């Protein structure tokens, strides 16, 4: 098995005594040696082919291979493109590459042609021949070009507002390299930060650089990463562990999944540097089994890194040894909490424990343990590459760097975005996300998943960082951002998120186990129109008790969606309780369908579509709905062509 310490050219006798970054780049370029000018030229050519910048000559057809696009048939599309190239004899001049997520998920499957920067959306396998033919003719296939709500075409990726408003650093490789080829990662600068660390830095210097960068944990709590590493470094004991928390479980969150699918080696490199800094020789990646593509690509990445001598013993002849093992989680949301995750790795039931001691003192198998999430670790090579001072130029003073958000909900352009900390909600939701679809108005945004809170239009100009949001009852969390339009019931939103956390409670502590159940029962009564004003006082009291007495973050934060909606949308709660009415028309028990006799033409469509025969009437005469039989399914509303059915 050849490693980076082997001669890169069979005919060359030169073996470097200390591997350098150019040697790593040389190794990816094939049987070359970095000790001569010819080798350096070939390295640059290889790098150019990987990146395919505007000055490149080799054409690449990049097809999105993220989970979303794969579910829409991107694998079949890639095969169809390859077949079309073969039919036209263009396989030598054009390469089809399956990449990670491009981020613009609403428009998938996506095809990006480089170096021309031609960007196609919602591509089908049947479009392959037309794409190849237009590529051969030097033309753009206009019907596949992205168009905004006004119909304006954007043939180039760089011009699309969704991308133009972003600052892609962590996502810079996703959508541009093949995540299953380590050569692509190395040729774009991968593992050079590790090389620099092993050759030129001490563990203390690495920790100092991470501390000076101001990097805070991207898993939600925002704890200073350097401080956590320093605590583990100082902890007694020869055995220490690094854990990558990839147990992303928030509804509407897919940031970590996309990073692992699109750039897995960045996470491995971050773990290697963390291991060197803290004195660890073993790392674990805890990834939920519901992410099969991420797990597949992680396994490939770990295997390739071992083949290349970047995992295992005496890495790059530095004396540093480190290996990584992948653990699959069974899908328990509570295992996203550090101590519950560690219990799961140990083969125990995933339940949190009382702290202190902290994991950096007594974690996995009672050994000092550093636990960082996927995005935090992916930042580490970037910080070493840029330097702490340059990294701090991004974001805000207290929240440096960028943050990846998963935009979902009522947006025109949901997807994966990366922006500097401090961008406002308005910039993210409207400039990048395209605003609310179908011409509806903005109502609220829920940040931080089940642990977060809901904010309103008055908060749209708020800078998004750790401290600004916490003062308003919301959190960045792991990065989920669910946008809601005018027809959303905020009581139902609170009920949905609380139902999720109640179901995911491990049951170890009474406040969370019993309190969430009682809170959910009250919310369900409110949604059914069965609650009284006293129930609202009980709900708020329960929220405070559960929040202050629960054992772990799940219970401590589960009340946030309820408390924030009570704070900003109390009138909706009162409408449900006092008026027995759902203003948004969502809660079915409080909805009433009727027919406006002035608008009704007696066409009979609602009568025919009603599943319980609640609609009565003669043809060409106004119809009526028998309220005693109506099950409030809304079928009559959807079937009426004359807007005669009224929902109230």
Automatic annotation (TrEMBL):
Residue ranges of every copy of the 4Fe-4S ferredoxin-type domain listed in the record: 591-620, 621-648
Presence of the UniProt keyword Iron in the record: yes
EC number: 1.6.99.5
SMART domains: NADH_4Fe-4S
Annotated transmembrane regions: none
Single GO term (MF): FMN binding
Alphabetical UniProt keywords: 4Fe-4S, Iron, Iron-sulfur, Metal-binding, Oxidoreductase
InterPro entries per the UniProt record, alphabetical: 4Fe4S_Fe-S-bd (IPR017896), 4Fe4S_Fe_S_CS (IPR017900), NADH-UbQ_OxRdtase_51kDa_CS (IPR001949), Nuo51_FMN-bd (IPR011538), Nuo51_FMN-bd_sf (IPR037225), Nuop51_4Fe4S-bd (IPR019575), Nuop51_4Fe4S-bd_sf (IPR037207), Thioredoxin-like_sf (IPR036249)
Enzyme type, top EC level: oxidoreductase
Entry's family note: Belongs to the complex I 51 kDa subunit family.
Database matches in PANTHER family: NADH-QUINONE OXIDOREDUCTASE SUBUNIT F
Protein name, entry field: NADH dehydrogenase (Quinone)
Species the sequence originates in: Desulforamulus hydrothermalis Lam5 = DSM 18033
């Amino acid at each position: 098995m050849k490693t980076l310490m082997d001669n890169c050219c069979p005919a060359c006798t030169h073996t470097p005594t200390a591997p350098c970054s150019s040697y790593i780049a040389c190794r990816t370029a094939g049987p070359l040696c970095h000790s001569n000018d010819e080798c350096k030229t070939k390295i640059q050519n290889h790098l150019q082919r990987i990146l395919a910048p505007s000055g490149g000559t080799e054409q690449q057809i990049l097809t999105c291979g993220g989970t979303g696009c794969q579910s829409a048939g991107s694998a079949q599309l890639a095969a169809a493109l390859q077949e079309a190239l073969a039919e036209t004899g263009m396989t030598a001049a054009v390469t089809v590459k399956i990449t990670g997520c491009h981020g613009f998920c609403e428009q998938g499957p996506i095809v990006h042609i480089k170096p021309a920067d031609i960007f196609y959306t919602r591509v089908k396998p049947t479009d392959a021949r037309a794409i190849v033919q237009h590529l051969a003719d030097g033309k753009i296939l206009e019907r596949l070009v992205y168009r905004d709500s006004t119909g304006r075409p954007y043939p180039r990726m760089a011009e699309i507002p969704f991308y133009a408003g972003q600052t892609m650093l962590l996502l810079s490789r996703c959508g541009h390299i093949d995540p299953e080829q380590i050569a692509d990662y190395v040729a774009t600068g991968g593992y050079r930060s590790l090389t620099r660390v092993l050759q030129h830095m001490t563990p203390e210097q690495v920790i100092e650089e991470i501390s000076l960068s101001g990097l805070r944990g991207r898993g939600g709590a925002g704890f200073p990463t350097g401080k956590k590493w320093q605590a583990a470094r100082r902890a007694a004991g020869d055995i220490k562990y690094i854990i990558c928390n990839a147990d992303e479980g928030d509804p509407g969150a897919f940031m970590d999944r996309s990073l692992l699918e699109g750039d897995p080696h960045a996470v491995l490199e971050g773990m290697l540097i963390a291991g060197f800094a803290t004195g660890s020789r073993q790392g674990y990646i805890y990834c939920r089994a519901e992410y099969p593509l991420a797990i597949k690509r992680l396994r490939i990445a770990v295997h390739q890194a071992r083949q290349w001598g970047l995992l295992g013993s005496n890495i790059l002849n530095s004396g540093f040894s480190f290996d990584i093992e992948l653990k699959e989680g069974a899908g328990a949301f509570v295992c996203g909490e550090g101590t519950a995750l560690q219990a799961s790795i140990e083969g125990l039931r995933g339940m949190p424990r009382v702290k202190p001691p902290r994991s950096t003192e007594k974690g996995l198998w009672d050994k000092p343990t550093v636990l960082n999430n996927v995005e935090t670790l992916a930042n580490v090579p970037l910080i070493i590459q840029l330097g702490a001072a340059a990294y701090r130029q991004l974001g805000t003073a207290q929240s440096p760097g960028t943050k990846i958000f998963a935009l979902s909900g009522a947006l025109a352009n949901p997807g994966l975005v990366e922006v500097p900390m401090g961008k406002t909600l308005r910039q993210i939701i409207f400039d990048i996300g395209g605003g609310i679809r179908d011409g509806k108005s903005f109502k609220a945004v829920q940040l931080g998943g089940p642990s977060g809170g809901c904010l309103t239009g008055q908060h749209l100009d708020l800078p998004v960082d750790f401290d600004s949001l916490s003062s308003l009852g919301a959190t960045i969390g792991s990065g989920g951002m669910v946008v809601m339009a005018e027809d959303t019931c905020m009581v139902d939103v609170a009920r949905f998120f609380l139902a999720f956390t109640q179901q995911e409670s491990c049951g170890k502590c009474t406040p969370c186990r019993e309190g969430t159940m009682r809170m959910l029962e009250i919310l369900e009564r409110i949604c059914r129109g069965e609650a009284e004003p006293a129930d609202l006082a009980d709900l708020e009291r329960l929220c405070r008790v559960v929040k202050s007495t629960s054992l772990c973050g799940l219970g401590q934060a589960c009340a946030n969606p309820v408390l924030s909606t009570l704070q900003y949308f109390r009138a909706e709660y009162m409408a449900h309780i006092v008026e027995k009415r759902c203003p948004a028309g969502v809660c079915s028990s409080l909805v009433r369908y009727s027919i406006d006799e002035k608008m009704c033409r007696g066409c009979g469509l609602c009568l025919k579509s009603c599943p319980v025969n609640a609609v009565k009437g003669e043809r060409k005469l106004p119809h009526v709905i028998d309220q005693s039989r109506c099950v409030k399914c809304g079928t009559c509303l959807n079937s009426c062509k004359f807007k005669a059915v009224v929902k109230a």
